[in-house]
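Need residues for this backbone.
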């Protein structure tokens, strides 16, 4: 799941919503209904207001060909990077895909969903490198936010959630070390 890095442009809440609105308009013109499940930083920005911006919008979408084409057109028309909306998150999607509309805005031709908070936490734990940081928003700060948001009190509880979404062989040992260190350091 992509996150922000120094020197990369950032998409704010307003820019993401404007781009999604433009995408909705393009879908209206085509007479097509679309669905986008948002992941990663976009969810942290739009649903949780946990950060100000994200590098891109990680998502799965239907119909994929139409959404991909229209997203490129939107990028050109509103001055966003061509990959502002991408489906690179596919490798982290769980077979137990639990999505909700949460507090996401909805459009007349574009339905937005997101993973449940537990599912997003599991994804972030699976994706997060140990020692990420340098001050920028990263998976680790998102994990801390989600643990607090869910009111989790132990590393075991967090790892139980992760293993509910991903089979143990798929969960890297570094994920458990990271979660344990967050509790040991008093960050959660």
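Answer:
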């Amino acid at each position: 799941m992509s996150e922000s890095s120094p020197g990369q442009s950032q998409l704010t809440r307003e820019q993401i919503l404007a781009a999604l609105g433009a995408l909705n308009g393009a879908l209206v013109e085509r007479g097509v209904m679309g669905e986008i499940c948002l992941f990663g930083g976009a969810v942290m920005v739009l649903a949780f207001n946990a950060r100000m911006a994200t590098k891109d919008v990680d998502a799965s979408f239907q119909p994929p060909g139409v959404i991909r084409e229209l997203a490129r057109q939107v990028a050109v028309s509103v001055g966003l990077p061509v990959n502002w909306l991408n489906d690179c998150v596919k490798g982290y999607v769980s077979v137990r895909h639990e999505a909700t509309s949460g507090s996401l805005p909805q459009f007349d031709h574009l339905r937005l969903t997101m993973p449940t908070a537990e599912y997003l936490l599991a994804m972030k734990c699976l994706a997060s490198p140990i020692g990420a940081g340098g001050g920028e928003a990263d998976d680790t700060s998102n994990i801390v936010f989600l643990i607090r948001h869910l009111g989790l009190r132990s590393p075991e509880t967090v790892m139980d959630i992760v293993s509910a979404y991903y089979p143990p062989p798929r969960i890297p040992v570094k994920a458990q070390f990271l979660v344990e260190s967050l509790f040991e350091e008093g960050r959660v």
